[in-house]
Structure formats: structure tokens, C-alpha cells
Amino acid sequence: MDDPATISDKQLLSPNIGLICDAGAVQVSFRNNFNLQDGFDGGVLEVSYDDGLTFQDVLAAGGTFVLGGYNGTINSCCGNPLADRQAWTGNSGGFIDTTVSLPGGCLLQFMLRWRMGSDSGVSGEGWRIDNVDITQALTLYRAGPRRRASVRRRCDERRFVMTYSFLRKFLAAGFVPNRG
Questions:
Q1: Global pTM value
Q2: Pairing assessment for the beta strands 42-48 and 72-73 based on DSSP bridges
Q3: How far is the C-alpha of 75 from the C-alpha of 118, rounded, in Å?
Q4: Where do the domains of the chain lie, and which CATH numbers do they carry?
Q5: Which residue has the higher pLDDT, 138 or 79?
Q6: Angle CA(75)–CA(78)–CA(79) in degrees, nearest 5?
Q7: What sign results for the dihedral spanned by CA atoms 131, 45, 75, 123?
């Protein structure tokens, strides 16, 4: 997203991401690179649990940054739509790794929104997002006779982390989450 010298509100939306109810915390990892007017332009990560009708900051939604969290607060002057919010602002000096942990529970689906706001002043290069990875820790077993599964589909029960696309393959093969 470019950083213009005018008031703007730009966004990058994920599709709806379906997960397993009560399977454990969700981690969102990505790389981002920003060069924005320090303290006046910035970017935030927001989450929606209602099909994109409303979004809230990941921190307000109960999430926590594990790595590479916000580094400043957006100034309230000059019309930035993200005024007075914590954000990524200034110059990251290249791509940085960011990981945020979303609360567990029954999050059947959610959407992510990377949102960048700018004021009416100085422009910058902008904000880049890359390599988004969503993981969820869970224990699986095959439906029917109580056979346990891991990545190899056979061995004793253990917890492991899967990416969203890999999890879909397991579910299609008849595996279901172990509810305890």
C-alpha cells in the first residue's frame, strides 16, 4: 500500500478463514516492511468475527503480539483515520517478522484486515505485507475406531501445529479434532 501525502484509509483483506471450534489458540505470522511518516502515518492489524461487518484491532479483540508488534502511536492531528491508535509507523529498515496470537475458543471463522492510514502531510514509500501463515495447534484422531494420527497418520497422540491448507487435507481424509 502506498503512503500518499493526503488523508487516506487503505486496506488489505484476507478471505474468511475457517478453523476448528475449541481446537486451541490461533497464530497469525507474516512479514511486513513499512516506510511511513513517523508518528503521523501507520498501519494496524484488525480482525472480524462477523464476516467482515465489523473489525477491531487485534489487541482489543484479545490478541497478543508474540513478535514484531506495534512500535508507536499515531498523532491525533492532521486527519489520519487511525489517530490515537497504536500502530506500525516510521521505517522498519526492511522486512520484519510479526506473530500475533488470537484467543482460542469457538472461532469458526474470521477475517483479517491490514489497514493503513495517512494524514494530509508528508508521504512515504508505504507498507508491504508478505508470507502470511495461519496456524492452529490441535490433536487429531481418525473418526471410527480410536486410531490416533499425527502428520504420518499413525503414531501415538501428540500435539502439533498445522497450516490452514494442511489442516483441510486432514479433515477431508476423515480426521477430526480430539476434544480431550
A1: 0.75
A2: unpaired
A3: 10
A4: 8-135 (2.60.120.200), 139-180 (no CATH)
A5: 79
A6: 95
A7: positive
